[in-house]
Design brief:
By secondary structure, this protein is mainly α. 72% of the residues lie in helices and 2% in strands. A hairpin with a 5-residue loop joins strand 1 and strand 2. The two termini are 38 Å apart.
């Protein structure tokens, strides 16, 4: 018996396609157009071919910003993921404290990014900020506005404070989904806490950890607002990550061609790295 397939449901997808085209495809094509041309205003364009891509890829400025970005993202993932797992393991699974802990963990995520940067800027000021004043009172020379190491550490700590909660909530969700039967079997076998974590909890958190690492990689690799409000990319170029450097090139210098080429390279780096992360972390599930 032949079944009649109803294709009318595809019309429900049309609004989504229009929205995606308006918000993603059309701006992307505009950037692609700028990346192959030069403009001096008045809507006059001059064909440049791949000149801007070659210029960006050979630029020491781009290499330095990319190195800073990779260092920052790598350190963020290496700190926030283990810390998030550790905090999630200590959180209660039952009782009234569950709601309290979840709300406390979610609070940093509710604060807008520009407010986070402003909060930490005031908090870390060496003269009037609680953190800066306390560290200097203890004899620690701290001034994130003038010292590159202090600026770098402050930016790292700010991001850890803001986003570790996301990893905690994801890991907690993964832990909460583990049936009690696994723990009962482990207790019968006399398994140690480390063995329970290694052979039960960590494998069961594999998928949520994949999501957590991908989200933190994308967010930290595209970070802009928090470090811009906190340090402005300084002192010098210490915290000038790729996003800040891109905005300086596009808006500060009005080099639209090189900025468009750099943004496309930036996009490809994020896309290919995320694909690599996902492929490596899900390889065992396919076997």
């Amino acid at each position: 018996m032949n079944k009649t397939v109803n294709q009318k449901a595809w019309w429900l997808v049309v609004p989504v396609l229009i929205l995606v085209a308006f918000n993603a495809f059309i701006p992307l094509m505009t950037v692609v157009n700028y990346s192959f041309q030069e403009t001096f205003g008045n809507n006059q364009f001059f064909w440049e071919g791949t000149t801007w891509f070659e210029q960006v890829l050979r630029s020491d400025r781009f290499h330095a910003a990319l190195f800073r970005q990779l260092m920052f993202t790598g350190m963020i993932i290496l700190i926030e993921v283990p810390l998030g797992i550790a905090v999630a393991l200590t959180m209660p699974r039952k009782g009234p404290w569950v709601s309290v802990c979840l709300v406390l963990m979610a609070l940093p995520l509710l604060i807008p990014w520009n407010v986070v940067g402003a909060m930490w800027n005031i908090f870390a000021l060496p003269d009037i900020g609680l953190l800066g004043y306390s560290l200097n009172s203890m004899g620690i020379d701290y001034n994130f506005t003038q010292q590159p190491v202090s600026a770098w550490v402050t930016t790292l700590v700010m991001d850890i404070w803001h986003w570790t909660s996301l990893v905690v909530l994801l890991c907690y969700a993964g832990l909460s989904s583990i049936p009690d039967a696994y723990y009962q079997a482990a207790r019968i076998d006399g398994a140690s806490p480390w063995a329970i974590f290694r052979f039960i909890q960590l494998p069961k958190m594999n998928r949520v950890l994949t999501i957590a690492i991908l989200l933190r990689f994308m967010d930290s690799f595209m970070i802009y607002t928090e470090p811009f409000v906190l340090t402005g990319g300084g002192p010098g170029n210490t915290t000038t990550f790729l996003s800040i450097d891109l905005v300086k090139m596009a808006l500060g210098q009005f080099d639209l061609g090189p900025a468009a080429a750099m943004s496309l390279i930036y996009f490809l780096v994020v896309l290919l790295t995320c694909w690599g992360f996902y492929t490596v972390m899900t390889r065992n599930e396919e076997n």
